[in-house]
Each structure stands twice: as C-alpha cells, then as structure tokens.
Amino acid sequence: MMRNNKIVRGERDEKMKYILDYTNQPYLRFFEEISAVPRNSFQEEKISDYLVKFAQDRGLWWYRDEIWNVIIKKPASAGYEDHPPVILQAHTDMVCEKTPDSVHDFENDPLELYVENGWLKAKGTTLGADCGAGVAYLLAVLDDKTLAHPPIEAFFSVQEESGIGGPRFVDYSQFTAKRIIATDIIWEGTTYDSVSGAIGGDFIKKVERGSGAKQTAFSLTVSGCTGGHSALNAANCPANAIKAVARILFRVKNEEPIRLIHLEGGGIRNNIASHCRADFTYETGSKGRIEKLVREIAGELAYEYSFTDPEMTVALADLPGDTEALDESSSNIVIDLLHTLPSGSYLRSRKYGDAVFASRNMGNIRLTEDALIVGYMFRGTIKTQTVDMMEQTLCLAGRFDAHYEEEYRYSGYIAGKDTPLVNVWKEVYQEATGNDLYFLTMHGGTDVGTMIDHLGGIEQVDVIAIGANARYVHTTGEYLELASYERTYRYLTAILSRL
Question: 395: how many CB neighbours lie within 10 A of its CB?
C-alpha cells in the first residue's frame, strides 16, 4: 500500500489557464484543476496523484491504497481539538460521455469548461459535477486555515459510478469518525432520508453463428433518446433505446424472417440507453414490408415518448449482407430475450411520496461472436425487495437459457431525520434561507450505504448529504449552478463550525 510516508511520482506541473474567478471561492479553482485530470472509473490514478501532492504540499496526513482511494486528514482548528471527528466524503470518478461529434479524449484531454447564464458546463462532454463539485469542496476545506472545524477525515473514494468499488475495499481502520458529511447530492438544501442499494452485472446468452450465401441487410438505429441516470430519471419513465430496438425487431421477425448480424447499444449499466443499433439480414422481396412496419412502430414510439424523448429518431438504412449472421434460432431467442426483459420502474412507495423504491435497468448490450451480453442493474431501497425482484428477473431470463454474472453489490440506507448532525444541517439551512431542509428519497446509490455497513451500521453512524444544484448529470447537457455552488459552500463551512 502507498501510505503517508511515500513520495508520489507523476506530479502534474503544467500551467493552468483558469476561466473562473475564484476570488473568495477557492472551490472553483480546485474544480477547474481536477477538470484537467482524467478520472474515468478505474482510471483514478492521476487524480489520486493530484490529491496526494495536494496533501504533501500542505503537510497533511494522507493515505492511498492500491485502487487509488485517498484519505487526507486535517487536525481540528483551535478550540475544537476535543470535538469528535467528522468524515467528509466525495468520489473522484466521473461518468465520461461525449456528443457524437466530439473528439475529446477522456484519458488525456482536460474538460473544456465554460459558463452560460450562470451555469458551469463542459463543451461536448459531461461536466463531472457528480461528484467533482464535492471533491472541490473537500479540497477547499482542507486548504483553508481560517475555518473552524473538528478533526477532519476527508475520504476521496473511487469507482463509485461503476459499483461503489472504493468503499467496498478501503481500509476502514484508517477512520475514527462516526459522523459523515457526504457531498454526492445535486439538490441544494436537501439531504437524503433514504438511498437505494444495487446489484450490477451482466446477463449472458450463448449464441450460434450461421452460414450461407450473402444476403440483403438493414441497419436499424434508435438514437436521440434523453437517456441519463437510471435512478434519477426512473420516475420519468423515458424511452430506453435498447428496448425500442428490441420492440421493433420483435415485431419485424414475427412478420418476416430476419437474422441478426450486429447488436450494440447503451453506455454504462447505470445509465438509460440513449442509442442502439442492430444490423440484420432479410429475405429478398420483404424489404418494402419491413420498411413499412418500421415506420409504423417508429410512429408509435414517437407518440408514446413525445414528452420524455422528443428528439428520439428511428432510422433504417441499407447495409451490405454478411455471412456471419446468427442462425435463425439464436437470432429469434436474442430478440425475444431483449424484448421480454423489463427495464424501468418496478415498485413505488406511497409512504415516500410515490417515489421509486425499486427498478431494473438494461444499460448496455453487445453481441460478440458467441454471446449476447446485457449490462443490467437492479436497484432498491429495501434489500429484501431488491433481491426478490432480481430473483424474478433471473427466473425469466432462465427461460431463454441466459444466466446472470453478478459483478458487484452494495448497500443502501434509511437515515434518521432527528439526529444531532441532521439537526445542525436543519438549523444552518433555516437560518440562511428561512426554509426547512428537504428530505429526499433517493433511488440512486451512493458510497455512504457501504461506508455505514463497515462503520457499525446506521444505529452508530450519523450522516447527512450536502450539495449544490446540478442537473442532467451523466449526460452531455450536465451543468452546475454557480450561485448555488457558492451558497452551499457557506452552508458546509457553517455546519463544520457547529460540530
């Protein structure tokens, strides 16, 4: 392990060209700096280098493990030495999506930030405010010697966007605090009263390739869907491009014999697929009938999703035939499986304002030489409901001889509304705005549920979340409201001064 007495290599020394005025707003400077550092999930080594150098430059205790989780500790300010410590938490990885015309290289290029009408955005890519905004807050707190606060244990976790990897494997002996202030939330004046757990993995269905003479073929694409985070947008019931393609293929193959050549769609498991493509052969003489049927179904989809996905496009184009199409049986089973597997909201709770309490998401698919692989995620606030939903879906997939390979599983939590830490947050927000703190039932996962499990359970851990307004996270339309970002930092520092 890389601990607090080892010199870090690979330090960044290039000159930054700042676009934001960070006078009296140091978190803006740190946000710009981390926006120049690659930080896709499982590629957090460079951002961890940045964080360790930050700690070294300030003489702060630091710890880094093999997967690039980083912990930085700052002693209490004067007069707070005997106060209980607090964990500040943010994840360093971001969802890396870009527009079709973007040439951005997420492994090497800095994000191209710009401001529009008070919103911070990135040109052609996701912004990484989830959770870069929180990372910058933590750095600003660690850097400021004028703040009043108890001992701070700042936890910069990794792999949050790909299964809460960091908190599942970090060394919890490095923590002493039982209070957590998490920054992975995108609504000002809000904290979570519950957060969902999740199970992520792949459905795998073996297939057989056929042979035969070269045939005529079509390429079917569904694109322009709203997409976005499968938890944040589950209640809106948007279109899933994979499911739209499966619906079209199902109707077509029931009318005309077709065989799949290529199938690919979606991005990551925890996003709603915004695009999907399927190439398939068809028999001579059926072209016109297939084109007519696709137009009819495209019209149905446009009507059904006119509110949530007004930019959705269905396109059918001629394609040279291919001798490596699936055999007819495999092709039919793949189409039936994708059409049958559900995706979207599963359970809602009237107790929590009709919030989504359980859902399933078909996030990505790809057809290899010998298998269909379907990236699939189960979410739920109550563990037993989530497991039952998963078992039902596995039973359904089993009818098509598809099995599920689980990659990760992480916990959710239900928080108290009248704990010491929550009451401080209520007090700070009410004094600043005159409004009551809002409690959000979150159908997404965060690092905190897993952290709570390892720190003794919700009975022993006091937790709040705090963050600024950000919207359209996980999409290229993502933005961070700068005025909210400034206000929320003042809330955070006020909370720390009262702990």
Answer: 9
Q: Please state the pTM of the whole predicted model.
A: 0.78
Last residue of a domain, one of 375, 410, 445: 410
Listed residues 377, 410, 443: the one ending a domain: 410
Residue 328 located in a structural domain:
yes
Single-letter amino acid, residue 496: L
Please indicate, yes or no, whether residues 168 and 240 belong to a single structural domain of this protein.
no
- What is the pLDDT tens value at each position of the chain, 499 positions in all? 344 434 333 333 455 678 888 888 999 999 999 999 999 999 999 999 999 999 999 999 999 999 999 999 999 999 999 999 999 999 999 999 899 899 999 999 999 999 999 999 999 999 999 999 999 999 999 999 999 999 999 999 999 988 888 999 999 999 999 999 999 999 999 999 989 899 999 999 999 998 655 679 999 999 999 998 887 777 788 999 999 999 999 999 999 999 999 999 998 888 999 999 999 999 989 999 999 999 999 999 999 999 999 999 999 999 876 668 999 999 999 999 999 999 998 877 766 666 777 899 999 999 999 999 999 999 998 888 899 999 999 999 999 999 999 998 888 898 989 999 999 999 999 999 999 999 998 888 899 999 999 999 999 999 999 999 999 998 899 999 999 999 999 999 999 999 9
> Within this chain, do residues 332 and 380 fall inside the same structural domain, yes or no?
yes
Tell me: do 38 and 178 sit in the same domain.
yes
DSSP H helical ranges for 116-254: 129-143, 165-169, 241-253
Any domain includes 459: yes
Do 362 and 389 sit in the same domain of this protein? yes
Residues 221 and 326 in one domain: yes
> Which structural domain, as residue segments, surrounds residue 398?
199-410
Q: Measured between alpha carbons, how far is 342 from 393 in angstroms, rounded to an integer? A: 8
- How many other β-carbons are positioned within 10 Å of the β-carbon of residue 398? 11
**Exposure string over 41-78, b if 16+ CB within 10 A, otherwise e:** bebbbbbbbbbbbbbeeeebebbbbebbbbbbbbebbe
